[in-house]
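job 3f2a | input accepted
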Amino acid sequence: MIANKYRTHTCCELTKEHLGQTVSISGWIHNKRDHGGVLFIDLRDHYGLTQAVIYPTNEHQYEIGHLPKETVIKFTGEVVARTDENVNSNMVTGEIEVVVSTFEVLGSCGPLPFPVFPDKEAPEDLRLRYRYIDLRKEQVHKNIVLRSNVIKYLREKMHGHGFQEIQTPILTISSPEGARDYLVPSRIHPGKFYALPQAPQQYKQLLMVSGFDRYFQIAPCFRDEDARADRSPGEFYQLDMEMAFATQDDVFAVNEDVLSATFEKFGALTADKPPFVRIPYREAMLKYGSDKPDLRIPIEIREVSEIFRTSGFTAFATAVNAGSIVRAIPVPGCADQTRSWFDKLTKQMGEFGAKGLAYLTWKDGEVKGPILKFLDEEHIAKIAAATGAKEGDVVFFICDKEEAAADLAGKLRVKVAQDLDLIEKGVYRFCWIVDFPMFELDKESNKITFSHNPFSMPQGGMEALETMNPLDILAYQYDIVVNGVELSSGAIRNHRPEIMYKAFDIAGYDAETVDEKFRGMIGAFKLGAPPHGGIAPGVDRMIMLLSDEDNIREVIAFPMNQKAEELMMNSPAEATPVQLKELSLKHVIPSIEKK
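job 3f2a | predicted structure (595 res):
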């Protein structure tokens, strides 16, 4: 680094090569130790730690020793070798120390809201209110550095694939992305509002129409939605990309290279190499009970409705004949679990919404279980054949309507794998979920509606829309999933106006409505649009997985809390009367109804 009046070296630079040199280092007092009158201070900066030593002969020892932790200080002194017994092999600078001759306090420190070192648990709201203190902690600091390095690498990879980085507008118009918009009032146009982009979807497609071949950006996106562990309220970032004259395979090839290389380079685990597994949506829902399956779990759900339809287990047989289905979840090697474990699992599934939990065990050459008395040998044999059950295994059964049964079976699959430590370790398992249905039946209105993304190209194009049952039409839509976490959805776009009009017509929208709501895009498609497609993997979720954090707020420098508040700056805040007047707005406080 370049030396200046504050430091000749960082706190991670000094080694035995610098023995005998007089150096200056600056940073925060990380820790203090007094050993027999000799004062040791670990000095910390962005780069690392260096041990400083202040001997009793130093006239400033008392003054330095009484400075609180996190004081910002400059030390000047000589680099000396540590004694053999004091060498710290866990530190880059662990073979040396700096014998302090002079010091200068650069920034005093008052009482801390919580300690930086040693790191102790603190309430999340307190951490977020004093985020600048929280960011000094080793792990959080590492996460933000990791984020920077990953984003730099993503840019390098995208440029290597021939993509141009292009910024799209932040002040735009409301777009049908499925979440609530953040609105920004216009001063120049009273009564009108900009919307912060939920995604640069329309703009990136219009870039393809404009003649750009490959676009990307690390795009900020804004959605007024509730927080979750893997989703930050308000603002998030994605590796947004779009490709002209591209097929689904082309999009997959770029993303598989970028994601596999990124996870392999920055993650602590081994990442799948391309090509990634491709699983049709309906197969994923059957085998894993989820469209974001964790492939580290060695359990596949099976369909056994027809077996139970003719069985003596009346509860299931009656339900199946009334339209329900039965999913079997075969779990290897857990027949020795205690009755209390089965009871606890049954209770847990009840909390998930299951009406009960039936199961059979294959143990000591016998089949046992609460529903055994309702099944004859023929049906038990069919169950064993359908599920692959063998000695030591357990097969659980969920009976419900199709959507509920899939969801419950998927949750049971994950819960059992967690309980029994069946989840494969040391790997990032990627997969594509493909062949999403284009349409679905709305439960309330019983009408056809779009099931995923209305701007996706239907497989089979116009012919499929004109000749097939809408509920059987598949779309060129896809999700990329890693270890049970969805990184992104994407699609090959519907760039043909006549196909778009027909698709919206099936969903109940006439041409006038399409022209009104999507004037810019449909108009552009009428003036020469190439085939194109894209995707936008979430950067925040990538970093969360790479840093092995359970909460996305641990990888964002200044995140909001679960109530969408940024506590450090006290945002959101009320506007002043002058600001409201300039924007032609009036603040109306909602009345609180008395109970």
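job 3f2a | The longest helix spans residues 138-160.
job 3f2a | closed
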